[in-house]
Amino acid sequence: MGKACFYCRGRQNVQKLYSWKEPEYFRLYCRDCIDRIKKEEWKSKEEFLDYYSNKVHYNRLDDKSKELFQRLKREE
Fold this sequence. Notes:
- The protein is mostly helical.
- It has one domain (15-75).
- It has helices at 31-52, 55-58, 63-75; strands at residues 15-18, 26-29.
- Strands 1-2 form a two-stranded antiparallel ribbon.
- It is elongated, with a radius of gyration of 15 Å.
């Protein structure tokens, strides 16, 4: 079975897109879907950073999520 887009199941021009939450993992998307998914991922990442920039919210994170938050802030 060949590689297919995770979003539309298309098999043309499939590319890897790594997760910002877990950079060791990726999903495959076709050229038609990847830009849309990148925008959604960027928005989700920005919402995460914005929400947990508040100390009250940040303190509720588990240790792994705090590490993720700190890594993402360093990369900005």
